[in-house]
Specification:
8-stranded mixed β-sheet, 13 helices, Ribo_hydro-like, glycosidase, Inosine/uridine_hydrolase_dom, Nucleoside hydrolase, hydrolase
């Protein structure tokens, strides 16, 4: 029997982070050791509470959750994406207060300690601004040596950005942190908008989740409503959404093998001009099929097979149904508010 892969997720729990958490928590070959949160889609503390609530839907109260940085490396507050993820970050679905507390330890300390305890076997998955990882690197410069692999959902290579014409939210909300993390000597994979915007969740996804009726599936279906509202209005020509963080989670876990993921030299624009926050990937060898280059620092996923949303539904449908959960309505334990406010965009 294969030993489950130890993994720590650093996130800013919005709707797609929540789906990624459920996917990983329900994967028998993944040992989700800890979750840390950072300001991005919502405040770091709110993201930690969201995380505990989501994990409790599948009985995973054993996973420590710690809140981290609520400001960027430069000290500014991120632009919370309430109009994308809802006022509470999880699609305005109201879940019961978690029974497990947010950990007393700081997220940065939890990242470092979890890496040390895993003895080189830990994979890191970052689906949020990279502030926590940048601070962890400052505190423990040997961190890349202590972990097996780092997967970052963020950036855009050929695809437009989603907070500016060039910048994606996770990179663009703290470019200095992203530049510091990408410059470190990780075994690094980047999952940009180029692939996450082409793996789409749809109303059929919602119907499949509701039909199963488990608390996790009903929550996921209800949380997608606000997320779909945003994508339908500004990003996609149909009612649906991108599959940002769950796809990155599946790639981090080895469940999705990219069709095209060349090793490239990647940097981040940290200037104050219109390109601030852009992921700068050197793709000039496109017509040479991206030969290996000596200065490459990241594997950049540029093509997947487009079938992951179905796999996501299959995984979430392994959660235990509740006898009193109706397939056409939210669970009695949760409710939905429909208030939408303006804010920043986040992936």
């Amino acid at each position: 029997m294969t030993t489950p892969q130890p993994l720590l997720m650093d996130c800013d729990t919005g709707v797609d982070d929540a789906l990624a958490l459920l996917y990983l928590a329900l994967s028998p070959d993944v040992d989700l050791r800890a979750v840390t949160t950072v300001g991005g889609n919502t405040a770091a503390r709110q993201a930690a509470v969201n995380t505990l609530q989501v994990l409790e839907l599948v009985g995973r109260t054993d996973i420590p959750v710690a809140a981290g940085a609520d400001r960027t490396l430069n000290g500014s507050l991120p632009h919370y994406a309430t109009h994308v993820h809802g006022d509470n970050g999880i699609g305005n679905v109201q879940l019961p207060a978690p029974t497990a507390p947010v950990a007393d330890t700081d997220a940065v300390d939890l990242i470092i300690e979890t890496a040390r305890q895993a003895d080189g076997a830990l994979s890191l998955l970052a689906t949020a601004p990279l502030t926590n990882l940048a601070l962890a690197l400052r505190r423990e410069p040997r961190l890349p040596e202590l972990v097996r692999h780092l997967t970052v959902m963020g950036g855009a290579v050929h695809h437009p950005g989603n907070i500016t014409p060039l910048a994606e939210a996770n990179i663009g909300n703290d470019p200095e942190a992203a530049a510091l993390v990408l410059a470190a000597d990780w075994d690094l994979t980047i999952v940009p908008l180029d692939v996450t915007m082409r793996e789409n969740l749809t109303t059929a996804t919602q119907r499949d989740l509701l039909a199963h009726g488990s608390p996790a599936c009903v929550f996921a279906a209800r949380a997608l409503d606000v997320y779909f509202d945003f994508h339908e209005e500004v990003a996609l020509p149909f009612r649906g959404s991108a599959c940002h963080d769950p796809l990155a989670a599946a790639i981090a876990a080895g469940h999705v093998v990219p069709r095209l993921a060349p090793r490239l030299h990647v940097d981040v624009e940290t200037g104050d001009g219109p390109a601030r926050g852009a992921l700068v990937a050197d793709t000039r060898a496109l017509y040479l099929s991206y030969p290996e280059r000596a200065d490459a620092n990241a594997r950049v996923v540029l093509e997947t097979d487009g079938r992951f949303p179905g796999r996501l539904v299959e995984r979430l449908r392994t959660s235990t149904p509740a006898a009193d959960t109706a397939s056409d309505s939210a669970s009695p334990a949760m409710s939905t508010r429909t208030t939408r406010t303006n804010g920043g965009t986040a992936a």
